[in-house]
Task: structure prediction
Amino acid sequence: MTHKRILLAMLAALGALWAGSACAAVDAVSITPWRGDARGAHTIAHDDYCSPGVAGIEKYALPILEARGLKAALGVIAKECKPADWARLKELIAKGHEPFNHTLTHSGELEAGTLKPVAGWDARREILDAHALMKTQTGYTYTFIGYPYDLATPETRKLVKEQPDYLGARAGKHIYDGSMAGLNYPDDDAYFVKWDVYWTDGKWSLYKPGAAGSILIQHTEAAINSGSWSFRTMHGVADGSWEAVPLAEYTAYADYLKQQVDAGKLWVATPTDIIRYRETRRYCPATLTDKEIRFDTSAPDCKRYATRVTLALTASVAPKVSQNGKTLAVKAAGDKRWLVDASPLDGVLKLD
Ligand SMILES: [Zn+2]
Result:
């Protein structure tokens, strides 16, 4: 080969490389509202764990959820837990279920109905002692709270917000103004997570009963249809607990959840997982430069909440993405969209 030919061959090779990389150019990046590009998010919560009336959580709910790969949130009444309950909680934590603080004795701060102060309520004892007891017994640190009866004064809510371990709270107030129930949008307050409580006849639920599982399913569907997060509060299942969910209703609900998860429409997760995701999206924005995606991790709330998020990339062909020298999985989402999961604190994403 002459020098000229070698030069031409090299140029041709370079040209091919250039064309290849130009095809894979990423035009845009964004963090999807919910993990996996799901349309909505949902939390399954059972209150009053460890109290004697909720045997159906262990007997029915958890086996039904586990058979479908779903995780639950469990509101624990810490003083009611026996040694066997603590051992069981350790197992459930290891499986990815999330216990949350439902106070020490569940005496409550205000009487349900009358809203009169409950004699002897001590916020530090009920909340902080319960927190310490969970830590001592299982090694687990609570990051979420659901107040008994979802009633709490502004002072108590302030106390929770001041605790460095707490990343969020279920909406509680000292009045009934309807603002505690509903759906949660991507920019809503982590310390005021709205909910719907299961009520057999639908009396205080946002929804009315119909076909099996109807109240539960409607609340989930609402999240999918509006791009929000719905938090389902229940007590036991087919047991003697307050407004226990009948077994057929619960099974229909769990089947529906699995169906929606499998279809990629719904992300079912525990409150802390969802809060971390939502705050990461808000406080660790991702920006695209020529060959890189960078997260801005300068905000203190970015470091506090940071978790793995799903990035949606727009490109005509599948981009190659790596972080810290590790190739990341890229999933086709159709319409020139590509999904990549990454953690902001793991550094810059390289594109080629
Ligand atoms: Zn309760």
User: Anything to note?
Assistant: The first helix runs from residue 3 to 23. The mean pLDDT is 94. The chain is about 35% helix and 20% strand.
